[in-house]
Design brief:
This is Peptidase S1 domain-containing protein. This protein is mainly beta and 221 residues long. The chain is built from 3 helices and 13 strands; from the N terminus they run βββαββββββαββββα. The chain folds into 2 domains: 95 residues, Trypsin-like serine proteases (Thrombin, subunit H, Beta Barrel); 100 residues, Beta Barrel (Thrombin, subunit H). Helices cover 10% and strands 35% of the residues.
């Protein structure tokens, strides 16, 4: 299933840290807040990529944090991770399409969140990769919930009624949406929210179209 092959995870010192998405054979897209120190990750040999059906260890060569990342309000919460060797693309490890800066993700788009995070607020991580269908939420509607903390580089997805959301451990993972012609695009990077699945507080994601030009400065496309 496509939603289960886009997501991998980053592990440091044998502890699950964050989700991430393969956007190129040697590059991952994840959240900036996942890294205490990019330097320690660059020298770690224990960085693990895990798909839904297996696991392999690939060393991380470097981590590039978005230069405008603000750890206080989580603005531009995105990072690129370069692998030391290309990931072996297979049935269980595949690339997701990057949108253009002008790509529009409409409210009625077919979208999914994916991760190994907690299945409820205060719960523990799961060993089984989870996925859930969510809606893109209108920016003005989400602004009513979060106020000015919500910046243009952020987007919301889920349900205003709550109940279906990303949670602890899902950070850095993808919000993917299907284009009407068939391909799946990464619309957002799981970033933050008030609790998990709370009424009136959907999940907040880094808007990939807002950082697409920055991605292009580091990737060969």
């Amino acid at each position: 299933d496509l939603h289960c092959v886009l997501l991998l995870f980053l592990q440091y010192q044998k502890q699950h840290r964050c989700g991430t998405t393969l956007i190129h054979k040697k590059w991952l897209l994840t959240a900036a807040h996942c890294f205490n120190s990019p330097t320690e990750w660059a020298v770690s040999l224990g960085s693990v990529l895990r798909s839904g059906l297996g696991a392999l260890v690939i060393p991380i060569q470097r981590v590039i944090i978005h230069p405008a990342f603000n750890g206080t309000n989580m603005d531009h919460d995105v990072a690129l991770v370069e692998l030391a060797v290309p990931a072996p693309v297979s049935y269980t490890i595949q690339l997701v399409c990057l949108p253009s800066p002008a790509h529009l993700f409409l409210e009625n788009s077919e979208c999914y969140i994916t991760g190994w995070g907690s299945m409820k607020e205060g719960g523990s991580l799961t060993n089984l990769l989870q996925k859930a269908a969510v809606n893109i939420i209108d920016q003005e509607d989400c602004q009513l919930s979060y106020g000015n903390v919500l910046t243009p580089s952020m987007m919301c997805a889920g349900f205003m009624a709550g109940g279906r959301d990303t949670c602890l451990g899902d950070s850095g993972g993808p919000l993917t949406c299907r284009h009407h012609s068939g391909p799946w695009f990464i619309a957002g990077v799981t970033s933050w929210g008030h609790g998990c699945g709370r009424t009136g507080f959907p999940g907040v994601y880094t808007r990939v179209t807002s950082v697409r030009k920055w991605i292009s400065t580091h990737l060969p496309f």
